[in-house]
């Protein structure tokens, strides 16, 4: 089912409801900048905010959420375990620090940020404990290729609920999306707007046809493919505009045209070759 409203949710493999659409806060400065961005998003009807320990803005996210007056159970907050903190004991401590900075009683989704070789399986055991202890409502991974997921699933007691990876029309991730679907792992896109590289002839033509922006077309493409999407912006007008994707539907032909743009092109690091 394609989302019809901004607050619509997908049901994760453990029964938790996760909004299809959210605000990402990567590279959003701690303090006033991130608090304003989150406040704008919540005011526009967003109920899903995605942060990470590495973004160094968890405290600002938590402040904005508390000041919003929105009931905690109506919100979905994601944060992530950073690479330097991977390993069993260090992961547990890192989560406690993230939870303290957020100050929101619990975390809805906690992700392993990158598949650090030799450590991500111990980190996953820590996340399983946090989940079983009721400190997080769902656990998942980020930037995991198929072979990372296969390795994790060989020993995991809990199947990840989510895999959040770079995905957009130039990096369609078709095989990974199919693998996640087969294993009931919700696929989620970071950098869905290709870091602003939207000046593409086909996208511009399709946007004109629907009287939408290329960004809105790409975000609609995500939703119609069953992809959770978290575009980042700090501008109120853009945050509102990004979410105006529930009043139109791309035709099968236009979906196929966008599918055909894939170049397996990354704007971020390759999960098989990163050094941080």
From TrEMBL:
Claim: GTP-binding is one of the keywords in the record: no
Organism of provenance: Alicyclobacillus fastidiosus
Keywords: NADP, Oxidoreductase
Domain NADP-dependent oxidoreductase stretches: 22-263
Name listed for the protein in its UniProt record: Aldo/keto reductase
Coiled coil: none
The keyword NADP appears for this protein: yes
Family: Belongs to the aldo/keto reductase family.
Pfam (any one): Aldo_ket_red
């Amino acid at each position: 089912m394609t989302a019809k409203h901004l607050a619509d949710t997908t049901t994760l493999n453990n029964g938790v409801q996760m909004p299809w659409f959210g605000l990402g806060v990567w590279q959003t400065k701690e303090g006033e900048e991130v608090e304003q961005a989150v406040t704008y998003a919540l005011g526009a009807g967003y109920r899903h905010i995605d942060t990470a320990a590495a973004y160094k803005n968890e405290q600002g996210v938590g402040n904005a959420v508390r000041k919003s007056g929105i009931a905690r159970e109506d919100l979905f907050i994601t944060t992530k375990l950073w690479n330097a903190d991977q390993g069993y004991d260090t992961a547990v401590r890192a989560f406690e620090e993230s939870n303290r900075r957020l100050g929101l009683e619990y975390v809805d989704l906690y992700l392993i940020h990158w598949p650090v070789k030799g450590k991500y399986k111990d980190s996953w055991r820590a996340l399983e404990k946090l989940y079983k202890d009721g400190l997080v409502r769902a656990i998942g991974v980020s930037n995991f290729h198929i072979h990372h997921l296969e390795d994790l699933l060989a020993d995991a007691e809990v199947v990840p609920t989510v895999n959040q990876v770079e995905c957009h029309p130039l990096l369609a991730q078709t095989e990974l999306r199919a693998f996640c679907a087969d294993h009931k792992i919700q696929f989620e896109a970071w950098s869905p707007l290709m870091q602003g590289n939207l000046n593409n002839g086909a996208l511009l033509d399709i946007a004109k046809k629907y009287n939408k922006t290329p960004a809105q077309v790409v975000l609609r493409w995500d939703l119609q493919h069953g992809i959770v999407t978290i575009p980042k912006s700090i501008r109120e007008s853009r945050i509102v505009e990004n979410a105006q994707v529930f009043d139109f539907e791309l035709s099968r032909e236009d979906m196929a045209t966008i599918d055909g743009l894939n170049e397996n092109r990354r704007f971020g690091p390759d999960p098989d070759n990163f050094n941080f």
